[in-house]
Please model this.
Amino acid sequence: MNAPHRLAQGGLIDRARPLSFVFDGQAYAGCAGDTLASALMANGVKLVGRSFKYHRPRGILTAGSDEPNALVELRTGPRREPNTRVTTVELYDGLVAASQNRWPSLAFDIGAVNDWLSRFLVAGFYYKTFMCPAKFWEMLYEPLIRRAAGLGRAAGAGDPDHYEKAFAHCDVLVIGGGPAGLMAALAAGRAGARVILADEDFRLGGRLLAERYEIDGKPGTEWVAEIEAELASLPDVRIMPRTTVTSVFDHGQYGAVERVNDHLPVPPEHEPRQRGWKIVAKRAVLAAGALERSIAFGNNDRPGVMLAGAVRAYANRYAAAPGRRVAVFTNNDDGWRTAADAHAAGIEVAAVIDSRAEPPAQFAALGIEVLTGAQVSHVHGGQGVRGIDVVDARGRLTKIDCDVLAVSGGWNPAVHLTCHLGGKPVWSDNLAAFTPGATPPGMHVAGAANGALTLAECLHAGVAAGAMAAVECGFPIASFMMPSAEDEASGVTALWHVEESRAKAFVDFQNDVTVEDIALANREGFSSVEHLKRYTTLGMATDQGKAANVTGLAILADVSGRAIAEVGTTTYRPPYVPVSFGAMTGHHRSRDFRPVRLAPSHQWAEEQGAVFVEAGAWLRAQYYPRDGEKDWLETVNREVTATRASVGVCDVSTLGKIEIEGADAAIFLDRVYTNTFSSLPVGKSRYGLMLREDGFVMDDGTTSRLAPERFVMTTTTAQAGRVMQHLEFCHQVLWPELDVQMVSVSEQWAQFSIAGPRSRAVLRKLVDERYDLSDKAFPHLAAKEVAVGSVTARLFRLSFSGEMAYELAVPARYGDAAIRAIMAAGEEFSMIPYGTEALGTMRIEKGHVAGNEINGQLTARDLGLGRMMSSRKDYVGRVMAQRPALLEPDRPVLVGFRPADRKARLRAGAHFIPLGATVTAANDEGHMTSVAFSPMLGHWIGLGVLKRGPQRIGERVRAYDPVRNGDVEVEICSPVFFDPEGARLYG
Amino acid sequence: MKYSVFSLLREAFRGHAGWTPAWRKAEPKSEYDVVIVGGGGHGLATAYYLAKVHGITNVAVLEKGYIGSGNAGRNTTIIRSNYLLPGNEPFYEWSMKLWEGLEQDFNYNAMVSQRGVLNLYHSDQQRDAFARRGNAMRLHDVDAELLDRDAVRAMVPFLDYDNARFPIHGGLLQRRGGTARHDAVVWGYARGADLRGVDIIENCEVTGFDIAGGRVTGLDTTRGSIKAKKIGLAVAGNTSRVASLAGLRLPIESHVLQAFVSEGIKPAIDCVVTFGAGHFYISQSDKGGLVFGGDIDGYNSYAWRGNLPTVADVMEEGMAIWPGLGRIRMLRQWGGLMDMSMDGSPIIDRTPVAGLYLNCGWCYGGFKATPASGWCFAHLIARDEPYEVAAALRLDRYATGALIDERGAGAQPNLH
Model:
């Protein structure tokens, strides 16, 4: 395959390494070192995409990440990436790309009918119509609009590649590897600073790769290679190619994306596709260069109309000729370089059209036709430039044949990153561009990004910024021989829009925003630059306005009769280039989205065939099915029945556990709990209730006194973290004077609840015989350190199930051994393990509250725990709990419920409605918080909160559950369904 | 000029030369009956309903930047009325009813799109909590459906049903919920208010209040002093700062919330989906961008910018439910200032200063409330008594304990 537009020589491509690729089903050949854009160009492919609204044919405008037009769907299947700029895709062998947002084909796109209808489809037309009839919006108009809108198609399937997150720290982060960035990195690196040099491109050099500059008498690329070699030799300098610094955050944090393997068909095994970096830098040097801008004139969007600098990049770097005959339209000296370079590359130059009266002298020798004081008013050709109309200063029209028009409207410094922390760019009349205003703390801006547009200036500014950054980090100034470079001309006279244009003149190419749209928006009062953006969508395309914004606001200034500085810019927001979800997610996806916490008995439970359930970050055994059990309910019924009949064991290690020690530990507990703990004897446990500062219940649990100044607190699983925070806050902020220390030991202890009438018998076999476990010596609520084999354990006589029960805690590393030992000891008593379902059933049978009741919306009184609020001491939440609305007699209070028809099933979340009342919010009296099937009672039972519930025992209400078609008559009863006397606790 | 397909056609044939500004660039007068501080959705809606419903047209809306420059123009555009508590639900349902007729009412296409809001649940406990909320909605005559896993899967088949850390068990669906075009809401209210004589004064920042004998008589601005019989504050994240100019210390903290939009893609998700095992919500705009967000950054701030860990967190949560997002690119992120209240619910009430009215505490849910907020605030200002559905949104409820705490998170604004 031959590439018809490949120049015979030159370029930074490796002609010895041909690569084949496919675009829209057609096979082509390129070379290593090509981008997809340059390879398409070398093959003479001009039509690459279609615009968003009018579906106008579009080609390649730029040679970088500011490309608005040439977007493709890259790769196929689950790796399909919509909206990928061909200008940033490194060519690889076997690359497959397809054009997007066109039907049936790129060359013949039905959507282009919009271009004919464009007089109706002006900016904001949709705000004025599609209103009648109202229903038609969702039924008709919007579906049509949605189908037409959007760009490429998402893959739709899970991304098969993986991603990484990475973190780096440095003294100086240099953003951009062009002449200024290279000099900055070298200056800082030689000074001894830890430097990271991040560059978006796959090759260092920036504009030097695209130009024919010489530095120190050497070709620019040769000079770059030497600098790169020295940087690579410095031990504390890290070069990161293919890495775009996308965002600046507070405190010297920078977000960056490294495209690790996007240049390969598939990432190598064990390597990520992309890496999302968080770089923390003491100082940064922004050397991101400048972005060339276009000029708005008739049909300035035709394929073949390109930025002048991009034409040079394709010719010089990629040896790809954008066309056979190029015309240049410029308002500045830089555009002339395109004519010179095209000429040098053997591409015919039709003419240079300079809007200024006085073109730069140094290009006069080229012998190219020059039209000064002239402007291009129109482009001929549909899917490719065929010629241009030029209007000169006296209004005469000349038609010039060409197939490429290189346009330079001047350069916009890439100020983006200077604005992420709120900096506002400043207008420079001299440069006809915005330059950085206030920069983020620690950031220096060097080179073209700072408005220094000549090479010599860039080199100097880079050295100065790099050296300054290093000095600010405490390094000495390194000696430096300043490289010498030619002093180019860089004059510019602003030109935004050619008045004589007859056809649509585009400002935002991708979103099809024209000069007329801007004028219309201004006419309608959308004259704030932000309103302009939002009304016309100017700058909201995937190039984030890089190609459009400054031109757009300059035209707005013009039509609204204001100065550009007065109009100002829209806010430059992160990220600098769009960032994939994958890069920001790294490995935190699918099952690895969040860490999984496993109970110490997890492996054993797995061996038993337990079914697990997510409980926050924990995975807990929900129930332990046995062969022949038809559903979960049968299993849970068996677990409850067996526990109550003999003995069962449940891993309760997920409960929060906090050790609290110190001379004032008891006082501290008195202040955080509603009830008193200073009176708790050593060797005893007590149930405690904790309120938030606002008087609502925060958590409950037991706290045991192991020694006079040593307690261990348990919290619920869900609130373990929050309670710990709360205690730390109370100590550090409210009562720093208390002598108390605390530490979370939730993960240090494996804890098992051993419940049932035979629980003591099981423990007797486990606990060293020198400990008396009799009811007298170790009664309900006793707590003690004991020996289990050679292990020091903690034994608590606590019951959540209502049975005689113990909690045995062993150091977590013995957890697996402990559950096996417990089960072995219990074998003769037919001991069974039970999961969270049976745990829940037994606590509901006993009327104990849990997370469904302690939901942050209920008070202690609401939960029937008002008696636990001590009146003899102060505690957190006491005062706020006395607020009048919290003392209202009508507040829903916890009671029990059983179905009037005992066969009926109850569901939590049902609301209570008085019998015979209409089902309206006004008659809503509360809701069911928890339900379970009680195997002991043989029917469903529930806990819930009901207005004046305790006074209505025996009454019936409806448990109304319309979202599940439920409507059950229930009887109000005591929340304690089983063993109301609590006799089973003892024995 | 009335907007319609006919006016659009007519203008199309004369080069769109006849369109006039959607609202006048009004200069401040020396005195108004009512001054609304804050030209966001809520402030403009208030002015609109003052003029339209109450016939009070000598009204100014003062905006320190351009209208809609705060949270009204920077949100994830979700509208819904799927609240649990009786203090909230009638208010948000009134808002939904106003949304349903809004465009015809103010003659502006705000693209109110009732494409459904689906809250995913990931555990039995969460299912029951969602059932409780869905039942509460139904008791208020609001649509709510509790979907099981299969029904969710049929509706949004591309989510992760097989390999998720927190499996999807089902969802609570409000079909009448959806999205609206946020900027258009601002412009529609502005145009409607302007047509009725309201002065919309941009680039006019309030610098002080004139208070005499416990009554507000006017305010000072960067464009001069203005006398006013009544003043309403609707300044969202700037509430604590502006109110302090009137000597008020409010139960409001300002926090940063980030939101995000992706590159435009062809239709990929039709409804609004929220993730229940974290905090993430996503929908797709008519233009094709995925619009998404998550939790607030968690610390008090007046800076309009967020931080990187929250960005990563939000995007992880997106991937957690929708693995196909991996190669989709986030195009733009922004941070707004949320007026977080102590119970997560708003305040529309009088203040201790006579004639000064307060509209704040929207947390990160203010957009959906825009119509009802404006309606109720206008009613309060015009009649000096709360509109029925906003009667619970009182400033003194933190003292009385009549809180409206949907999440049960307590008086800690960063947890709401």
Summary: The radius of gyration of chain B is 21 Å. The CA atoms of residues 193 and 323 of chain B lie 45 Å apart. Chain B touches chain A through 123 residues (CB under 8 Å).
